[in-house]
Design brief:
heterodimer; A: 408 residues; alpha/beta; FAD/NAD(P)-binding domain; 3 domains; five-stranded parallel beta sheet; 8 helices; globular; B: 148 residues; alpha+beta; Alpha-Beta Plaits; two-stranded antiparallel sheet; two-stranded antiparallel ribbon; 8 strands; 4Fe4S_Fe_S_CS (chain B); metal-binding (chain B); iron (chain B)
Chain lengths: 408, 148
């Protein structure tokens, strides 16, 4: 049996590890555009020069050798023929497979604004190759404009400010981190970024670009007519599944590659996991999908059930936040908030159950909240300050010593 | 693998386990009698909660068979050791994203109070011979080691 995996990110690597655990003898090949295994969540540490390329690796250096996994780094599959079970790579090589996992991740979305798509000094921040290009350009740049103030945009801002760059962030919403935080939580971070020298344009859209003769954007034009001078632009306006070349016969591509609950595409033996499916865009879910797909590739029937993906953690300037579930309250929702000098905590209740949690400052022991929200655990009968809930309120233990949630 | 088994009914909340944990992982040297309980370098990695029925609930890392923390780690800092079965944490690799804190279904994990850049995680006292200090310190046998 020959297993081929496209992509060496969270899903691809986890799948390979899972396959090797279950199949000692079979051949496993990873083909990845990435020439190094790296954690996308740590690219800002590369931009700030806190870590080098090697230190972005999230597997041991001898991972491929140790697990007897063949790896073709720096290669991209450009064509998938599902009837002959063959891939064509960008170097012309043909690769056959018995079972295939598409875990090609996603690509930065560059909106069709002015010359953003054509200009040579506009970058996304998604891959190590993006970070390398940004880092190189940063050597000759002092003013950097960032479009988007989500986690990627602010990661980029952090890394580049660390390098002494003048950073301006443009955000369409009226607050930064609009998906993750409420206004109050966002303000705390905004303050810290501004103290570090970052400038924000909130509630503003980049509408056009002004370029020089080299084809570089020198000014971003905002929707209120203001101009932002810049030597480089980083676009952090979301991603699109990396489906290029994957449109082999029978593969359904909508927003991402469509899969059933076993993460199999419409083609028998071809699976997809991670961001390329469009199911979710966060690391833990990509790992789980990689594991689930691999188990099914080996003949199990394991459904991917842990689909809850509205969760994130944030850590900038030593201030940690955790946000799970609904952030924006609707009518009839009950919001309970509490704060002190170092903490802001907010719980959103819907129909008597916790629907959303936002913790800023101390996030100790906060793991229970995801479980409470994801599984819609009723808490009304627990007579206790809601902020004081902990696992002792749901404590159960199994014979093998593992904990289990006990819900009355 | 070897796991610390918990018999919560026997726990009387003396917190000798927490003290032993702090002593085992303290950065400076000395005896239990001069252990600085306020020094955030000496945080305990196990927790005793007073529960709603008036008793105590020991919350110790289970080194789960399917560890959710490992499945959320984007830096490779958290790994499940295939031999010991323990969930190991490499502070140097940690990217301080705290996804693991969010993903532990039992709320065991927390960022460290000292730097806010690492997590507090049971290491089965691997640097003290691999025999958990908490177990040795428990006068009630509320926690004990078992091969599972």
């Amino acid at each position: 049996m020959k297993y081929v995996i496209l992509g060496a990110g969270a899903a691809g690597i986890t799948a390979a590890r899972t396959l090797r655990k279950g199949r000692k003898e079979d051949s496993i090949l990873i083909i990845s555009t990435d020439d190094r295994v790296h954690s996308r969540c740590m690219l800002h540490k590369y931009l700030s020069h806190e870590r080098d390329e090697k230190e972005l690796n999230f597997v041991p250096e001898d991972f491929f050798c140790e697990n007897n996994i063949e790896w073709m780094p720096g290669c991209t599959a450009v064509k998938l023929d599902t009837s002959s079970k063959e891939l064509v790579l960008d170097n012309g090589q043909q690769i056959s497979y018995d079972k295939l996992l598409i875990a090609t991740g996603a690509e930065s979305f560059i909106p069709p604004v002015g010359k953003l798509r054509e200009a040579s000094n506009v970058f996304g921040l998604r891959h190590l190759r993006d970070a390398r290009a940004i880092d190189k350009k940063a050597e000759v740049s002092s003013k950097i404009a960032i479009i988007g103030s989500g986690l990627v945009g602010l990661d980029a801002a952090c890394g580049l400010m660390e390098q002494g760059k003048q950073v301006t962030v443009i955000e369409m919403a009226d607050q930064i981190l609009p998906i993750q935080l409420d206004e109050k939580g966002a303000k705390e971070y905004q303050k810290r970024f501004e103290n570090a020298g970052c400038r924000f344009y909130l509630g503003r859209k980049a509408q056009d670009t002004l370029c020089d003769e080299k084809g570089e954007v020198t000014r971003l034009l905002l929707d209120n007519g203001e101009e932002i001078p810049c030597d480089m632009v980083i676009v952090a306006a979301g991603v699109r599944p990396g489906t290029v070349g994957m449109d082999g016969e029978g593969i359904r591509i909508d927003r991402g590659i469509q899969v059933d609950k076993y993460l199999q595409t419409d083609v028998l033996g071809v699976y997809a996991a991670g961001d390329v499916t469009g199911l979710s865009g966060i690391w833990p879910n990509a790992m789980k999908q990689g594991e689930t797909a691999a188990l099914n590739m080996m003949g199990s029937e394991v459904a991917y059930t842990d689909t809850f993906a509205v969760k994130n953690t944030i850590n900038f300037f030593g201030l940690a936040s955790l946000c799970v579930g609904v952030i924006k309250p609707e009518e009839k929702d009950v919001v309970i908030a509490r704060e002190d000098a170092r903490n802001y905590k907010r719980i959103l209740l819907r129909d008597g159950k916790v629907a959303g949690v936002l913790l800023q400052g101390d996030i100790s022991h906060a793991g229970i909240w995801q479980y409470l929200i994801k599984n819609q655990i009723p808490i009304a009968s627990i007579e206790k300050d809601i902020f004081e809930l902990n696992f002792s309120d749901f404590y159960g233990i199994q014979e093998n010593g593992e904990f289990v949630w006990k819900v009355s | 693998m070897r796991r610390i088994i918990i018999d919560a009914s026997k726990c009387d909340g003396c917190k000798n386990c927490s003290l032993a944990c702090m002593q085992a992982h303290r950065k400076d040297t000395g005896t239990l009698y001069d252990l600085n309980l306020l020094d955030t370098d000496n945080e305990s990695r196990n927790f005793i909660y007073k529960n709603r029925t008036g008793g105590y609930t020991p919350i110790f890392c289970r080194h789960c068979d399917q560890p959710e923390c490992v499945m959320s780690c984007m830096s490779g800092a958290l790994t499940k050791d295939p031999e010991s079965g323990h969930v190991c944490y490499d502070e140097k690799k940690c990217g301080s994203c705290f996804m693991c804190v969010m993903n532990c279904p039992y709320g065991v994990l927390k960022p460290d109070d000292k730097t806010g850049m690492h997590i507090i995680k049971c290491d089965f006292c691997k640097d003290a011979g691999g025999e958990p200090s908490c177990v040795k310190a428990c006068p009630k046998e509320a926690i004990y080691i078992e091969e599972v």
